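Recall the central idea of this unit: under ordinary conditions, the amino acid sequence of a chain determines the structure it adopts. In this exercise we apply that idea directly, starting from the sequence alone.
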Amino acid sequence: MKVVLVNTNDTGGGAAIACRRLLSAHVKNGVDVKMLVRTKNSKDNYIESTTHNGIKRLRNNFNFLYERLGFIAIESSKDVRFAFSSANIGEDISDNKLIKEADLIHLHWVNQGFISLQGIDKLLKLNKPVVWTLHDMWAFTGGCHYSGTCLNYGENCGNCYFLDKPSENDISAKIWNKKKSLYENKNITFVTCSNWLKETAKRSTLLKDFRIESIPNPIDTDKFSPGVHERLVEKLNLSLCKKYILFGAANVNDKRKGLNYFIEALNILNNRHPESVYKVELLVFGKSVGDIFNELPYKLNNMGVMKSQKEIAEIYSVSNLFVLPSIEDNLPNTIMESLACGTAVVAFNTGGIPEMIENGVNGYLAEYKSSESLADNIYKVLFESDSELLCRNARDKVMSTYTESNVSNKYLDLYNEIIK
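Accordingly, the structure predicted from this sequence is:
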């Protein structure tokens, strides 16, 4: 059985990381698998790009800009500029060699001008089994990747708050109707990375009649594993006398990651426990823009953008706690990475996060959007909990749920069942 995984990129963003990790898991498990992307940044021989020359790169850039500019003209604010995808332009990959040779097509995240709705339609009309792993809500909405408090997708879209002038027949309603026509009588099995997204998808009119399974993302537990704390502290020029709080994301400024709640929680923590300023320091990794870290109550060690998995694992291992106050998230790779490295996590009780964090066992769940609750739980991990027990439980959670062999075998069982 030949399988092709399809994703916009092979690096950058949670979906690219998750898809590539599944590729690695399948390869180790003996699956005949390749990954097809628009933009390839790695040297992985199992990954092929649809971009082979300068003209194609120019075309890719045009597709991306065409889709973005079209939305910019009608967006409600620049804050939602990359939170909505119209998929009105893209490539036709139905004639690609890997697609033609595949017995099963496994779609992942294909936005930002890679595959349009028309392109998805052409793939479905090949009459090959299609598995589509959802990394957000886009497949069953009128264009948004996360709907926030809006529940329109449950019936049909329209009156979209992402738009400057929402109406019953706005672009979200038109995209929703296109998807409805596109999915009719098609052989698609949807997979969500969390049970939360599975239940959310089931409530949508677009997907309620399709088979939807929940299979988590995998992680390499050899690359992400607990390091020797003392050695790493010395290597990174940190102090054994300090406790380190870690915050990180691909894009730190992404509002979904809740940086503002993190900063508020740190100020609350400092006000309630002023002595902590001598005991606590911060570690931050990821892309950041502007002066967002200028006024923090604790010393900041900004690690910047980190591309080496080894270095990222070391940052988790040297930290006493990882904090990710996401307000919308599916199954964050960063939380999985932290747990794999034996580092407890504090996060909001939302999305798929409660499936990863067992409250009081391998971390703590704060009340949704409560900076005070976030501060309380940060203090609890740093100064009141059994840190060694939290670390062991964090690692155990990953070993029982997210290992490469575990996840790859679940997908293989699904592939075989679908093909039969």
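The mean pLDDT is 94.
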